[in-house]
Amino acid sequence: MRPLAKGWCPGAYTPMASGDGLIVRLRPRLSRLSLQQGLDICDLAERHGTGVIEITSKANLQLRGIRQEQYEDILNALLALGLLDETAEIESRHNIVLAPDWEQGSLSQTLAEEFYERLPELPELPAKFSFALDVGKTRRLAAVSSDIRMEQSENGAVLVCADGAEMGLSVPPNDAITAAIKLAHWFAKTGVAEHKRMQAHLQTQVLPDEWQTQARTSHDAPLAPGPSDIGFVLGVPFGQTDSKHLRQLLLSHTPRAIRLTPWRSLILEGTGHIKTPHFIVNHTDTLLAVQACPGAPSCTSATVETRNLARALAGQTSGILHVSGCSKGCAHPKAADITLVRENGQFSLIKKGCSWDEPSRKGLSADEILNSTDVL
Ligand code: SF4
What we know:
By secondary structure, the chain is of the alpha+beta class. 22% of the residues lie in helices and 24% in strands. Strand 6, helix 4 (107-117) and strand 7 form a beta-alpha-beta unit. Helix 1 (35-48) packs antiparallel against helix 7. The longest helix has 15 residues, at 176-190.
């Protein structure tokens, strides 16, 4: 059975204590930082913490290892940088992922800005409940976890969909945010405590017909590392980098701005080809098929480091490989082709399943996994 997740997500106002200090998560508007903000974040991460910077699967940015006694200082600095929501309550509602290749002045940008303005109109929602704004020419976010989706519809309309439904409601663009807020209120009114996400909710609750008037498309094209129309896309291995490497990257290429993506990558606006050993620059890189949580010592639930094993196994398995410090499976809370979970000092192996599923083998050492040809 899936272990219970924490009932809340860290923010800047609500940092989470971890094995290496506080985790302070920022939710930059439009998932975009100016070059100067990016450089200032590197300085803050170093001055107040371990320098570790992470990109989350919701296109947010988090600083790890922040020292408790310096928390107020970092909060004031983030406020001065314009990277904080007005209040903790607004921050907790600020859960939207935007297809990252939006253009200046586009419908994506207009709707995102309207959504931010209207955050106070949202009902109280579970911490992980989120919105996806995917109204660009190409659909990008079909595989990104979200509860209410706004997608491109016919003739410039917007399809507002409950995640898990095959159809949505087509509305003129001006009405899209109103419709998304209305659907969130329907969820909140009909929700039951154990259904924290829309898809689970629809297993027991019938979605009213008004929300199912037009079929969705199945097309999906996430942005892979490499060149793109708006700048070079760089994968961040395991979603984690540090202030030194990020600063070096920004100073060498001086992008107009940095965009964060839900695929744990960065887009450096206006840049051409980039060569760097610290980021993933090619869509064929085998690390892209490997997921691993921070493990020990960053996480108090872990007894072992996970990413060295994950790196060593990159390219040795077919499909997605997930190495997890415990059965919660934070890095990949869904099925993978191969999952290795640390339990009682050894690894357990799960094939085509989640980290909390019954393993097919237990008691494996890292050496055995690395050196035997018949384990994976
Ligand atoms: S999966 Fe990894 S990061 Fe998540 S709680 Fe377990 S050890 Fe910690």
